[in-house]
Every structure is written in C-alpha cells, then in structure tokens.
Amino acid sequence: MSDKKQLTTAEGCPIADNENSITAGPRGPLLMQDVQLLEQMQHFNRERIPERVVHAKGSAAYGTFTVTNDISKYSKASIFAEVGKQTECLLRFSTVAGERGAADAERDVRGFAIKFYTDQGNWDLVGNNTPVFFVRDPLKFANFIHTQKRDPKTNMRCMNMQWDFWSMCPESLHQVTILFSDRGLPRTLRNMNGYGSHTYSLVNDANERIWCKFHFKTMQGIECMTDEESTELIGRDRESHQRDLFNSIAQGDCPKWRVCIQVMTDKQAHEFKWNPFDLTKVWPHADFPLIEVGIMELNRNPENYFAEVEQASFSPSALVPGIGHSPDKMLQARLMSYADAHRYRVGTNYQQLPVNRPKCPVMHYQRDGAMSTGLGGAATNYHPNSDNAAPKADPVYAEPPLHLGDVSVDRYNSRVDHDDFSQAGNLYRLFSDEQKDRLTTAIAGALGGAREEIQMRQLCHFFRADPDYGRRVAEKLNIEVPAEMLEAVQS
After folding, report:
1. Structural domain containing residue 465
2. Which residues contact 66 (CB under 8 A, 6 or more apart)?
3. Catalytic site residues?
4. CA distances from residue 89 to 48, 188, 275, 311 in whole angstroms, order as listed
5. What count of other Cβ atoms lies within 10 Å of the Cβ of residue 229?
6. How many angstroms separate the Cα of 22 from the Cα of each of 30, 36, 37, 293?
7. Is residue 261 assigned to a domain?
8. How far apart are CA 215 and CA 197, in angstroms?
9. Do 334 and 428 fall within a single domain?
10. What is the pLDDT of residues 14-63, one digit of tens each?
11. DSSP β-bridge partners for residue 298
12. CATH no. for residue 39?
C-alpha cells in the first residue's frame, strides 16, 4: 500500500495535474470549466485578512502555567485552585505601532497577550511589556494611534504628529520615559517583562473583592540594546526577535516568567495617593509588594503561523469566575473594542477557531454567522426557555456588587417592582365586545400550536391582565381552568 498523499481540491476531489491549466489546444485560451484553477485563484485573492490596527507584527508560542503559591484567599478562579495545577496557554508578543512588515528590533512598546485555556473558559490577559500606557481615557486612544501610524499626506511616520500629541497630553510622560529608556529596545522577547497593565479584580469563595495587577517577570533576566545595536540588527535581520524565540524553543531552551500579583483592598484604593484605576500610574512595590502565583513556560512552537498566530484573537473581555474587571476607563473600553475588532478582522465566529476555542465545553445561544461550525447543533437557540436540557445560568458565579459612591453596580432584576399586567388589561377593557372576540380568536389560533404547558403559562398572564381576557382565550383553546388557578392568578 502506497503512503503517497493524494492532492485534492478543497472539496476533496483528487487532482490529476496541478501545473497545467485546461485550454482549447496547446496555445488556446483558458476554459471556465477549469474549476481547479478558479478555486486556486479565488482563494488566493482572499488569503489575506485585514491586519491588526495595532500589534500587527507578532510572534507566539504555546506553554504551560504552573501554580507555585496558594492565592485562594484572593481568587476562586479555577486556574489557581491548587499548587502544582497546570494550565495550557498561548503567549503572543508584538510590536504596537508598526505594520506586519515592521522590523522586530524597532524602538516600540511590545504587546504581551496571553490566552489561558482554563477548565472554566478562556482567560485572556492582554497587556504590554510596560506597566502603564500613554493615555488614561479611551476617547484619546484612536487619536493617539493615528499619531503612531502614517501621515495622511506623506504616508510616512511623522515626529510632528507623535510629539505634538504627547506634548498636548502630559499623562503620556510616564510611558514616553519607559519607551525611550533602555527597555524600549529589548534584546529579545525572552528578555523582557510582561504586565497586565490594567487594574483587575479578584473575587474569592466568600464573594469578597480585591483589586489586582498582574506581573510577568522574565527569568532570563532583563537585557536591552542600544540604538546603534538595534540599527545594525535591523539591517541584517528584520525578524530577529521572532527567529530567536522560535529557535530557542525548538532547541529546548524554553523561556520562563515568574507570574506575580499586587493586591489592594477597597479601603486602600480609596486612600491611595493616585487613582488606582489610572492606566498611566503604577502601584509602588514598597506599598504593594509582589506576591508570586506561578511560573509560565513557553515550550511549543505553533505549526502554522497564520492559523495559530495571525488568527489568534485576544480580548480583555475573556474573563473567568474569580477574575473580573475594574473601573479603569481604558479597560472598560477595551472590553468592547477588542472582541469587536476580531469579529471584523477574523470573523463573527472567531472564537470557534482551534487556536481561540476553549478547552472546556461551550454552551450558549449564539448561532450562525460566517464560518460557523454549527456549534449548538439542533439545540434550543433562545433564552429564556422551558427546555430542561438547555444551558442555564448559575447564580453561584455572580460577582459581588461594585459600590461606586451612592450607586451600586450589579445585575438588577428587571421584574422586581414592575407591573406587567395592568396596562395590558386596561387596553383590553377599552376594546368593544367584537374587538375582544377577534383578539382572543387570533391569540387562540396561534397559541393553539404550542405545547399544553406553554398554553397554561401564557393563560396565567391573560387572567392577571383581566379575568375575561383569560376566560375567552381558554374557552377557544377548549381548556378548562381550575378554580384554584383562577384564585391564584387573581390574588
């Protein structure tokens, strides 16, 4: 038996010749019947997806996060459940401002985005190699990024744009100082720290919340380059950092980071010198020392760059029970903008791609859209529903309310203190007898196609609005309503 692999079309049909198109004679024109050629050309026209607006040039590797210290008093997140527990992860490094063809060794902030495939869903920590950022208000973000891109007239990077913005926004000074320091030119991706940057929240089993910052300390040591070294390196290798990361892992020299947190109580947050949710500020380590959580090791290279790096999609909105957001304005905006960017750039169902798909079961009511894999199958696709087999929310995962002055942020029950029946009843009583008859006949005609338990549930609503309303519909459905039910709905 031959182990030769048969070349096929995307439909799986065997291909006999993949070098010569179908033509009318040796020198004749091409024929439209050459669907093999058409498929190849049409797919080629669509092989590129829009590049990321920021963080376009990236490198990534898979790894393992191992818990080394018990922090269960701070967080009930299953990823931290016990010392020794391991969770698979994917870490994508990137330059922020440059396009996909940018050189790795350019002076720039580096993205440091991690996807943890936890047993309670994916947790994405989307940060940088700096603990702060240039702006604290999301209204400035898009405008700031414009200054890092190309001048609309010259199509070249423009120092006037960059420094005009920075000089008009003094909150950027902290990040500018880091960017132009030695750490703005890391020698390799392995020799730099990573940060969650934003303030997040941790919730424990007692439903107590504290504020948190995440740190990833390189165990290879911090190493940087000079401008001269960077210029020389770019001249001979524009993929220097990607090459170093890939080759290091391939050779078994697997880089590691020590994962730590800083924690702050709500009382400390109110008394802190600065706004603890300000992305342009750090928490001094002397006041809020690092607490080790675990070790992250990168130990496996992706097999296909496009599928596993270019299509890898990270969003701060990917949170798990025990890890939550905070009033950080930039974080609040990113909760929407990142996932929205992926739905535009990769597709509505980007989370169904293997690199983005959670390792745990996924059950929700989202359906269809481009590139859907049919997740959910024939199961119920709406909520609320009375299908006992359908997925249900569990209040055990609810976060505690967030108190902001006199206002508490929570999911408030929209049915409490609401009268959903009086106005419907008042409208019914305005109708003439003939109008009431036509209304209840139409309802009975439609409701008669539903299951009996649904009919009974809906009848209760009609009776609560007006007894005559319910009686007429029940009669037209040939349903005899028990007297105790009437008493219950009218009480």
Report:
1. 422-490
2. 84, 85, 86, 294, 295, 296, 297
3. 55, 128
4. 26, 20, 32, 15
5. 13
6. 6, 9, 9, 62
7. yes
8. 8
9. no
10. 999 998 999 999 998 999 999 999 988 888 898 899 999 999 999 999 99
11. 63
12. 4.10.91.20
